[in-house]
Design a protein that fits this description.
By secondary structure, the chain is mainly alpha-helical. Helix content is 72%, strand content 3%. The protein has a three-stranded antiparallel sheet. Strand 2 and strand 3 form a beta hairpin. The longest helix has 106 residues. It is rod-shaped and about 155 Å long. It starts with a helix and ends with a helix.
């Protein structure tokens, strides 16, 4: 974390502790200046910092910020009164440009480097999001595979249960047929016995002559 980032962090913390509202001005109480409430302390793109406060945070003179604006390297928001307002993202960029200029880079090369660094950060974040999405997709695929395996196991169990039920039904039907055959034979034997009894009864009633016959 650079010194500028630390100052911005402290600035954001102070604003949140203060209820998230702060009025900043290039010339406090000056004519034509419109008040701008900082009611979005967590929005890094919200233009809430005056040029004087921005210069204090960056440790530069206001003329440096004006030069960046005039060169088109950093264009702040303008109030109704024409005063510059900077977002925390713009202050981070201004601080980086100041560092690069101090190491001997021209403003053009400093802008190019800062832009490439910003693109690299965006690319890294996009790659992280892609990695997160890939991990989530892998997790979802594993969950789907587990669910499919559970479904296949359940289907196999259902097939086994159906086969067992079919076998039990076939056995019961075979046993029922066997018992029906036994019952039929018993009925035949009963009919034969009944016929013999009737014949014997008839002979007994006929007397000795009937018995001799």
């Amino acid at each position: 974390m650079t010194a500028v980032d630390e100052r911005l962090r402290v600035l954001g913390t102070r604003r949140r502790k203060g209820g998230g509202r702060q009025v900043v001005a290039d010339n406090p109480g000056g004519p034509g200046d419109s008040k701008l409430d900082d009611d979005r302390p967590d929005d890094v793109d919200h233009p809430s910092v005056s040029m004087g406060r921005a210069a204090e945070i960056l440790g530069v003179r206001p003329a440096f910020l004006r030069s960046l604006d005039n060169a088109g390297a950093l264009q702040p928001h303008r109030t109704d009164g024409g005063h510059r307002r900077y977002s925390r993202r713009q202050l981070t960029l201004a601080g980086r440009l100041r560092e690069l200029l101090d190491t001997g880079h021209t403003l053009a090369s400093a802008q190019t480097i800062a832009d490439l660094e910003d693109r690299l950060v965006v690319s890294d974040r996009a790659r992280e999001r892609a990695d997160d999405a890939r991990r989530e997709a892998d997790d979802a695929r594993r969950e789907a595979d587990d669910a499919r395996r559970r479904a296949e196991d359940a289907r196999r169990e259902a097939d086994d249960a159906r086969n067992q039920a079919t076998e039990a039904l076939d056995t019961a039907r075979s046993d029922l047929r066997h018992r029906a055959d036994e019952l039929a034979r018993a009925r035949e034997q009963l009919d034969d016995a009944r016929g013999e009894i009737e014949d014997l009864t008839h002979r007994l009633r006929a007397g000795p002559e009937g018995r001799r016959a």
